[in-house]
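lol forgot to send this yesterday, sorry. struct tokens for the thing we talked abt
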């Protein structure tokens, strides 16, 4: 409570509790059938605080602290993981009568990323390349946490092949080696071809000793007919 600076008294006048003499504890002696029993309990007048005042703070009712909400800026260490607890010292509830505050514990939840999946220190992502790039090889740019990085596509790369970029994953919380970035390579097949591309692919098919029916001019008519019959 900032009105009484945590003392609980509006003018800050605090006396020693007359009941317990400031110790917060009182002793009772009782005679029972078994004999003489000596007990020490919390002082009922000051509730164990050892304090008394005649001018209770009107803002906090004498408690010395009030409920409130504060906004804090908290530093998140690099490499923190989902479900981890972060301790912010002395940012919990205020102590009694100006005593030290407790700690604030934050449970970290990691939001999903649109491009990267995380498994431990490693990250996973996907890129799509054309089949000439996959067949001939290329150097492409892939997104990483630190901006684009070059990735070598070796000649003859197969669909769904996984390539690794070392040390482009997550930083390690304890300062050990950074994780890797694994890139799954998707190979796209063109949905539409120009006349020139169609001619070159037919030539390629011939050179590869395959004769797909798609090179036949009447093929598209046949496809339409088959789709029609299926209805
Ligand atoms: Zn007392
Ligand atoms: Zn107060």
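and heres what i got for the seq, position by position
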């Amino acid at each position: 409570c900032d009105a009484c600076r945590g003392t609980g008294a509006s003018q800050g006048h605090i006396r020693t509790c007359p009941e317990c003499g400031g110790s917060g504890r009182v002793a009772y002696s009782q005679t029972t059938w078994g004999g003489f029993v000596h007990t020490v309990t919390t002082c009922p007048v000051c509730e164990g605080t050892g304090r008394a005042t005649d001018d209770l703070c009107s803002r906090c009712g004498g408690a010395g602290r009030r409920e409130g909400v504060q906004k804090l800026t908290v530093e998140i260490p690099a490499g923190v993981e989902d479900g981890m607890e972060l301790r912010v010292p002395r940012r919990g509830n205020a102590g009694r009568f100006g005593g030290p505050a407790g700690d604030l514990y934050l449970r970290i939840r990691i939001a999903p990323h649109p491009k990267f999946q995380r498994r431990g220190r490693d990250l996973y992502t996907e890129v799509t390349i054309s089949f000439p790039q996959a067949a001939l090889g290329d150097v492409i740019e892939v997104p990483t946490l630190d901006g684009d990085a070059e990735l070598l596509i070796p000649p003859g790369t197969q669909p769904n092949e996984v390539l690794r970029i070392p040390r482009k994953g997550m930083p390690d919380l304890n300062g050990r080696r950074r994780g890797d970035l694994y890139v799954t390579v998707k190979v796209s097949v063109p949905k539409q071809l120009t006349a020139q591309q169609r001619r070159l692919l037919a030539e390629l098919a011939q050179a590869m000793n395959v004769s797909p029916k798609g090179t036949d001019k009447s093929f598209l008519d046949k496809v339409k007919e088959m789709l029609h019959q299926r209805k």
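The chain has four domains: 1-66, 69-111, 117-188, 195-230. anyway ping me if u want another try
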